[in-house]
Amino acid sequence: MDIEGYARRMLERGIAEDEVRKKLAERIAEIKGWSLEKAAKWAEAVVLEVKNAYSKTNYILEYWKSGVTMGEFGVGSRGKGDFYVHSKIAEVIGKSGEAIISSKDLDDAGVIFKNVKDGIYISVAVDGIHSRLSEFPFIAGFHVTRAAMRDVYVMGTEPVAVFSDIHIADDGDVSKIFDHIAGISAVCELTGVPLVAGSTLRIGGDMVIGERMTGCVGCVGIGSSITARKNARPGDIILLTEGAGGGTIATTAIYYGMHEVVEETLNIDFIKACKAIFSANLVPELHTMSDVTNGGIRGDAEEISKVSGCSLVFDMEKVRSIVNPRVLNMLESLEIDFMGVSIDSLMVICPPETAKEVMNVVRSAGIKIEEVGWVEEGKGAYVIEDGEVKPIRPRFRESAYTPLKKVVGEEEPRDFEEMRRRVDEAVLKAIEKKRHVVEMIKKRMNA
Predict the structure, then answer these.
(1) Is the pTM above the cut of 0.90?
(2) N or C end of the chain: which has fewer CB within 10 A?
(3) CATH node for 227-401
(4) pLDDT level of residue 322 (50, 70, 90 thresholds)
């Protein structure tokens, strides 16, 4: 519970301070198991801090309110709203420095040159833990680490270091830290990539009570070739390795009570496939690599098409055949569209002659890989099903993969265009604020 937010909202609604303190003390006492007297002291301090913090206006401290919430717009739900917000983030960032690949390219990792003369690239990626895995620290750590490494690998670079950030709410058990780190370091041990740095904090300090955990894992890689999404070309072949999913599939299994499927997600097959490709020196021959995560094939195909200016065509049955059978059975029994959920397959887009070599080396590593489609002139993504070519697009949210997500639904809100207008306005306000602060600091530097 965010007790600061709770107090602030009550005060904003005009509720008397004494009543706010009383209600807040009751909630704190109930959640913490404290006496009302002890909780009342907390409530009094919270109200005082909230009053002091929000009693004055300040251009730097305030932010322009769009009136659009994260949930309403689908941010973090790997669909149309989420993709839109991420495209606007690039506008806010602007040109903060030289980058070969940045957020504007819709890849999950960014790339810079370490040494222009030697042609050495450095890639950096960061992934947040799955929000529904807060009570399952090990699996959360395992999958977020693997995700960060995947993002580095698909840029054509090899991971050299991992770092982490863990935030646990005030009532969370300290053992969560160690279980989470164990999950992270399990992947590091299996791949030989060291965990070198990180931080551990509470969520909201004393102002958030509960046991919720969140955080992220980042990865740094180096290489001499780049396999960005924008490099896909007409005539290329699309390959996919078998996908058993990661955090998303584990979440589905847990919250549908099908815990036995979680074990299927615990592997480093994606990384083994990448290592085989790297060892065979095939990376310079590839055009694009990606991991099937952001809203599944629907989301990734849309983004690749957008940045490459090409059209992607998939064979439905071939894509279906590449999903881990146990995972596929679970998804189909729950009526979850496997095309719209993260299955964590490695996607390789390359010329036909290279595709054969890639399949040979990946199979020699014991990983299943198949040709599932091709790239052609045009725009958009398509699937061939029962002899018919059909367009595939990301939904407003990724496939609903938990009972609660099915209640929330996948449909686009009727007022989406109005919300998008307000999001655009928020972007302009943030850019304006950044410029103001940068100019102010530059003037001070030159004074």
Answers:
(1) yes
(2) C
(3) 3.90.650.10
(4) very high
